[in-house]
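tool=predict chain=A
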Amino acid sequence: MSVVDGRTFQMVSTIAVDDLLTAITVNPVTNRIYTANYYPNSSASIVDGNTNQTITTLPIDDQGYSIAVNPQTNRVYVPIWMSNTVTVIQD
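tool=predict ok
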């Protein structure tokens, strides 16, 4: 995942997350970034937006292709299309 300065459009950093990142969301309250990683390892990565460091990568069932965050509850939602379920991550 690349971090780009929105003012200068220069690349600031590259952050390692799991394979085939398919979606990304940001919690503006905690400044954490969440990615859904699709294949071959279905996972969700949590990144600290202050340090641009990956905090953890969590395995999720089947294949998540999207991701959403509720900043009021600090819950992250990853829909799983293979099983028609939603994985909920409490951060």
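The chain has no helices and nine strands. The domain at 2-90 is CATH 2.40.10 (Thrombin, subunit H).
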